[in-house]
């Protein structure tokens, strides 16, 4: 479709004109021929066969029958006015009903004549019935003419469009004209060897068949071809970006593993690394020896041991004469990293410091000095790390925790801290499905820690309905008697904020009565509380002064209270899967057996039930992310919002995972052999990429 024809404004298509063009633009965002060509039907209606009346039932989609009209009758007055008719074939009788356009039907339906009826069977008074069928006088010639009419496209339309006769049928007419006149201008954009290898339908044929399929097989082939094309070029673009970045950004070479690493590994590391931890370290080790800047995403559940891996990678950087830093999205998290690292390396091993908004001016000054003279080896902090004032002597390795809160720009700000940019390791405890990662982070390398350290007791998750609350209270008391602490989390959703807050307050009251002073002490934290008070309450809980923390989801991602061993989630059916999983991750941090208790009402939606069952069944974040995507679609997964990369036209990352993997592999192979795409057979890809980069086609890859 490199033909300029497709850039023609839609106005100039026969049957459109200025007014309709305007509506098409405003309602559907269709500006030119290409947009229209890519406005695909959302389904096809099967008109390939005729049903017999006895076979009709309300489960069927739109069906087509041939039947003779026996009678018709107008019933009711005004609002209840309707036309009821009966038709018959050699197998039975069917009732038809019209509630609108009655006069026209009354005039044109003639008892005794045979009709072709097309509509969706329904049920009325226990009988099969069809409302507002499309209707057409039957004749043998008509059937012959319809001989090649098979699967009819159905297009989404809007009320506004319908006012301009652009309902599904109207749009179909435009698409038909477009294809008739311009199909010849749809050019192939994949090399022949790929078409052959993947047995793909040609491009023009694919466009014809996705709108007006010759048959069901052809429709499938067309979809498959266009999906492949879409995923293929997305990956081509992403991996090309990666290649360009590799070309552009040299990377420091960490040639040796020296004293810091060895000393730590042999004398300080208090446990054996898990297999995935070792694997990731190796991956990072390889990355940092190639002379190319590393950009790696490390995914792993809370507690899987990402921080240790990050620390050990940083030690290698330090062994090679570089400084390092860890950037966290909140002060609490930065603090925790500081503590973790302090615990692991001790005080006299290496110089490290914490820099956040709360760091005093005096401390800050010292930190700045030591950064500039190279004395300070590890800096841990928040955004404060990338302020312009902060100058490093030789920053070589950067760790960013919880990536989805940092934009690409913030990341690149760190790169500019050195003339050869530091290697970047992005860590996230919100795993996303592999296919999503391949797309969203397609230009990053991805590492995964999918195994918790040995000896960790998996969190036990239980689901209780409201009537079991007393049992839950009893259980809470037992745990508190053992010296444990408990979180109780309430949903707080903007739309129902007031009600939610009331729920929380009511809950708090009940809990206060059940767990009275002076034996029990309770903290409450929610969004509206002033930050200082919130911090105060959190600290009371962290220090163990209170045993129960009643909160909304404001309790920070990553908050670490190892003594808290029970997480109770109220109205659990209202939370999304990844949120439930995140919340559960607040417990299970100590040596004790931990529990996650999901409280719900008796009435559960189907999705709600699946979510709760999934939580009870598995602790694995990757499995949960996969199911979350099946339930909500890729665009709604946490951390993926507003990514233009997911605006796919035909492909669906949930159902087309295999195809995506194939396309990815295929692109990798091509770049392995021909990174510049200069081989003659790949010229066509280069051309398409350039067109896409120039914004000349529909792929609006950001
Ligand atoms: P994450 O950053 O992935 O949430 P951390 O690196 O903070 O996880 O590790 C969580 C806890 O588990 C820490 O106390 C850490 O010292 C410990 N840990 C990490 N790796 C192992 C391991 N291989 N064996 C035992 N404990 C480990
Ligand atoms: Mg962590």
The CATH architecture classification of the largest domain is 3-Layer(aba) Sandwich
Mean pLDDT: 88
Bound molecules: adenosine-5'-diphosphate, magnesium ion
User: Strand order within the widest sheet?
Assistant: 6-7-4-3-2-5-8
Principal-axis shape equals globular
Determine and state the CATH class of the largest domain: Alpha Beta
Largest beta-sheet details: 7 strands, mixed
Number of helices: 24
CATH-defined topology of the largest domain: Rossmann fold
Low-confidence stretches: 696-702
Q: Helical residue percent?
A: 25-40%
- How many domains, as an integer? 5
Structural class: alpha/beta
Question: At the fourth CATH level, what is the homologous superfamily of the largest domain?
Answer: P-loop containing nucleotide triphosphate hydrolases
Strand content: 15-25%
What is the strand tally? 22
Terminal Cα span: 21 Å
Gyration radius (Cα, Å) is 32 Å
